[in-house]
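Input sequence (249 aa), recorded before submission:
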Amino acid sequence: MNQVIIEICAGSLQDCLCAWELGIQRVELNSDLSAGGLTPSLGTLIQVKKRTGLKVICMVRPRPGGFCYDDTETEVMMEDARLLLENGADGIAFGFLNEDKSIDPTKTKAMSDLIQSFQKESVFHRAFDLSSDPFHDAHLLADLGITRILTSGAAPTAAQGAQTLAALQTALGGRIEILPGCGVNAANARQILNTTVCGQIHASCRSFFPDEAFEGSGVDFSAETGPNHGQKGAADPQKIKDLIQAVSQ
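Predicted structure, token format:
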């Protein structure tokens, strides 16, 4: 297998700087990873491109929750994508579904065409994993001009969906890239790569750290809940180093 591409799911400029300093070449840039990742700010993208040589795939997702968007939300997504591409994004990650969880081909094609007009990469994100027929939908996305699918193989994690990912990789015959993601870490990355024969993986490599000044006088602004309440998530340099070492073996 050729050198593996590690894509880090980044939620800030700091995450991107950490990834770049450790030798990572590509990130998926988001805001609000506690909500599953939303559209990043232009300021963050501009700073990342100024201060690193990273390939930056920008998430375009206007809100938490599902992926069936009305016309107003779609207009915002298209405008966000255009602005991000004009300001240096190397690609856009997005997902449009219908109410029955099937892929919306009209909106997907419109976004794909916009991205292609900038000669950049289009990534259909893990909305794909709600598919009832991932093989049909993968071929549909290839037909619509999508560069890559970020997917766990329609399973809770990429490790659990590895056999489906391998079958997708075989069935698509190079028509579209398959990017395994969700729950990827140093302990399972090599097995996922060996099983799927994919040349790339997507991982967050995040840990949680104390978050000062989030509460007081009965007011609580913590974005995290459960065991991470009062903490903030950020890229963990040691987890990135461990992942790099694991995939290089």
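Checked by second reader. The first helix runs from residue 13 to 21.
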